[in-house]
Amino acid sequence: MPKDHSALLGVTRGLLWLMLALVAAAFLFVIGSVAALVAMWPEIAVEAKNSQVFLDADAMRPQLFALLGILAAVLAIAVYILRKLQALVGTASADPFVPANAARLRHIGWALVAVQLLALPLGSIARSIAVSTSQFADMGGINLQGILAILLAFVLAAVFERGAAMRDELEGTV
To answer: How many of the other CB atoms lie within 10 Å of CB of 77?
Structure first.
């Protein structure tokens, strides 16, 4: 007899909503940063020169807009992934082994691939405008956790697809 995991699923649902709220807050921060770059560029350039983190503070404005655009795209993908996870968790208490969940996991895997691909220009731009010893220059780039998450999503998609097929096969024999 399967265990009742309703409490764990409830906590998971709550955490997914919290994560969506945090992503929304981060997106608002990105929008605010774009507005600040437009409205307050001279002051920002002076602060950037004084920080000794950036190589050429006067010429980095387009790269900062590009960084913020990439961050906005990553946040949009995060919303997509979280919504897919919410749908997946929504079926967990009833029948998780349905073809739709396999497709959701596959979509999550491809979304994670997109995040890893966006991390490449993000890192390249950050390294082009910041001194190599700064934390700013270390952002972006492909990481092992991201690759493992991609593999996990695709493997789980295959498992869910096989589970759905086995369930359909079993129902057909009864």
So the answer is: 19
Task: Report the 10 Å Cβ neighbour count for 114.
Answer: 16
Q: How confident is the model at residue 1, as a pLDDT?
A: 38
DSSP calls for 112-165? HHHHHHHHHHHHHHHHHHB-TTSSGGG--S--HHHHHHHHHHHHHHHHHHHHHH
Record the pTM. Answer: 0.86
Cβ 61 vs Cβ 126: under 8 Å: no
Mean pLDDT across 129-144:
82
**pLDDT value of residue 6:** 82
Reference 64, options 137, 126, 117; nearest CA is 126
Q: What percent of the chain is helix, strand and coil (3-state, nearest 5)?
A: 85, 0, 15
